[in-house]
Structure formats: structure tokens, C-alpha cells
Amino acid sequence: MKLKAIFIDLDGTTLEKNKVNISEQNQKAIQKAMEHGIKVIPCTGRVLDMFPPDLEAIKGIEYAITCHGGRALDLKSGKCLYQNTISSKDSVEIMKIIEKKGIYCETACNNTLYFEKEVVQNWREYPVPAHHFWYLEMGRGIGVDSIADYFAANELEIEKINIYGMRKELQAEIYALINATNAIRHTNEGVSEDLEFLTKTINKREAVDCLLNYLSLDPKETMMIGDSNSDIELIRYLGFGVAMGNAPDYIKEQADYVTAPCEENGVAKAIKYKLEECDDKDGLV
Fold it and tell me: What's this model's pTM, rounded to 2 decimal places?
């Protein structure tokens, strides 16, 4: 079947190991696919505002799946085609648990990140991951005195939360209180200094199906390139599933093709392989 769209994960897949840049080879391969009329669609755990400059500079990317399926977006019109988020009420309760405790927390909502103003103004004093420096240095995101109060006043809903470097004495308590809301799903279970969670009803395949319906595409006309547990369902579901060379073995076993690791331009090699295969068989589009 003709190839009409390629879904690409970002971290561990399209981005280099620094999780910021995209290699020249990967950029050229993405551009070549789009020149053939194939839609290239980021499908990632990131919020839209955290798409790094190298990705934003690639012309022709028109759609995206963000926050592990929290949103499906038409980037041309700015329209949100699908949304699955934590309710406003639960979002406020969760932020009351987290804020005012000196925790570095990134709260995704409406395609950007919200921070406590004190935290974002003094971010260099907090355990910010190195691959997030560019975001804060560019002054992206929104700082407010109280995220709970701001979300309550504006009836906002959380897409995703990332917590990094939480102090040991807070970890078990925060983890238990957040779980007790019965509103969230962790991407990685267990008490830890780092937490990432979304709405308990998150469903990346549902978000992808919404976008495919919008574009009148059959899943068999698409491919997925990814490396992590959050990608495995789409690797199995879409027409051609690609696992990165740096992916765990259980993901590689589910894929139609295993490409090189992210640091060896695995995305470019996967796209080249599929384009050549399509050209040999039944054309591209």
C-alpha cells in the first residue's frame, strides 16, 4: 500500500542524544519524504512549545501528536483536533499538592508549559535537565504566582506534568497524594525524584486515529518510528512499524524493521529504506 504519512517520535528517535538537535541527515530525510508528498508527523510526549528549534525550522510539518496523545493538532490552522486532558477540578487539586514546595515542575497546558513564577525566575537554582536549558534560556513558558489559582480562575486542564529532581523527603508523600486523586497515569511507575504523568484515560492510538480520520488516511498507509514503551502500540498498529536500534529488545521484536540507533541517524535510514521499498513496489503517494 502507498505510503502517505510517517509518525516520528522525538526523544531517543529523531533527536540526537542531547535531546535538542536533529542531525543534518535526519533533517534531509524528513524533507525528502515531504517532497514526495508524504506527511511527516511528530508523535511525542513533548508539549508543542517544547519542539526544539531544529524541528521548528523544518518547513512543511503540518500536524502533530503531543503529550503522549493528549492532543492532536493541525499546526497550519492552530486547531486542536483531539484533546484528552486532566479535568480542571483535578488539575487544581494536583497543583495544590505540588506547588509552594520548591519543586521543579513543568505543567503542560494549551501547548505550552506553566511554572511557578519563583521557580522559573530562578530556574538555574533548580534541578533542570540539561536538555531543557534551551527552553528556559529562550524565555518560553508562562510563570504565574500560583498555578492552582490560575488554573482555577481560567478553568484550564493539564495535558502532562514533569517533575525533576524532587527532594528525597518529598517523594513518597507527593507520589501517594497524586495517586490518591485517581486522575492520573504515570509513564513510569514508582516513587522517584523524577515523575511524569498524564490523565488516566490517555490513549495515543485514539489521538492518532482522530488525526488519520481528519486526513482521510488508512492506518496501513502510514508508518511509525519510535524507541520506547509509549511507541509500541503504534509500531504494532500502523502499516509499517520501525524500532530504533537503541530501543529495548521487546520493542524491536514487535517491529517490522529495526533501524540504526538515534546517534547513527536511524530515522534517516528508516525513511530511506521505506522510500526505496515503496518505489520498488507500488509508488509513494
Answer: 0.95
